[in-house]
Specification:
The protein is mainly alpha-helical and about 260 residues long. Helix content is about 75%, strand content about 0%. Helix 9 packs antiparallel against helix 10 (about 180-190) and helix 11 (about 195-210) packs antiparallel against helix 12 (about 215-220). The relative contact order is 0.05.
């Protein structure tokens, strides 16, 4: 009986050891574990496992050197499975930089990802995220370019399409590319499924049409501007400008309505 019990205990111990080994980083890594972790000499599989758990634990700063080492090792490998791992690792690295507020690095990495892996299913998301991160830095030309690149995909999902349109219209508005901005906003207006979003689009469209002295199209979207938005300076300036236009052209009813 003693021999049976000892064998049973050995098996239980082995099972526990294997379980602990597999889940070594299940709750992320402590600062001490990270300091002691030899990234350069560790196996790639171990780095990927540690990275997965660090990401799960939202340790975005800590995981960056792990991801960078994995990328360095896999960069020149042409194996399809390796390329898949490499692409996802690069996407994760870009996302980490975005999470910690390094928008410049995130924008560059997302942009590089979209060009290096044009067939990847995350390519459109990367283009849009790159555009958004460039917007955070007021790099409007880059933001506009990448958002419009995403919009070239005619099969873009509605959710991603709306994000791309928002980023494109914001950038083009800042660049005073009124025609491009209007095209994006009109599509976004049609796709919007709530009054708040429609109102936001309508306000920007009114401002754009005012800049182009297109006051007849301005009137089409004015009714969609919410009462709250009527207090904004730019909208009121556009309405007054439109009122002056109609007054000077003897269209007094439209002028009176706007005033």
């Amino acid at each position: 009986y003693l021999k049976i019990i000892l064998n049973l205990l050995r098996k239980i111990t082995l099972i526990i050891f294997c379980f602990l080994n597999i889940n070594l980083f299940a709750d992320g890594l402590t600062e001490t574990q990270i300091d002691r972790f030899n990234i350069k000499d560790s196996q790639t599989s171990k780095l990927l496992l540690a990275s997965k758990e660090l990401l799960k634990n939202q340790q975005y700063v800590d995981v960056i050197p792990f991801l960078e080492e994995v990328i360095y090792r896999l960069e020149d490998d042409r194996n399809k499975n390796v390329i898949r791992t490499l692409s996802f690792t690069k996407y994760q690295l870009a996302e980490c930089y975005m999470r910690i507020g390094n928008f410049n690095q995130a924008a560059i990495l997302f942009e590089n990802f979209s060009f290096q892996f044009p067939e990847n299913e995350l390519r459109d998301s990367a283009l849009i995220l790159s555009s958004q991160n460039y917007s955070f830095q007021s790099s409007w030309s880059n933001a506009s370019k990448l958002a419009h690149l995403a919009l070239e995909n005619l099969l873009l999902e509605d959710e991603l399409k709306q994000k791309a349109l928002k980023s494109a219209s914001e950038a083009d508005y800042q660049l005073q590319n009124w025609d491009k901005c209007i095209r994006s906003l009109e599509v976004l207006f049609r796709l919007s499924d709530n009054n708040k979003d429609k109102s936001h689009c309508a306000v920007l469209l009114v401002n754009c049409f005012s800049k182009k002295n297109n006051f007849y199209d301005l009137l089409k979207f004015l009714p969609f501007c919410s009462d709250e938005s009527r207090n904004t300076l730019s909208l009121n300036a556009a309405i007054l400008e439109a009122g002056d236009y109609f007054y000077n052209n003897d269209e007094f009813i439209k002028a009176q309505l706007l005033y």
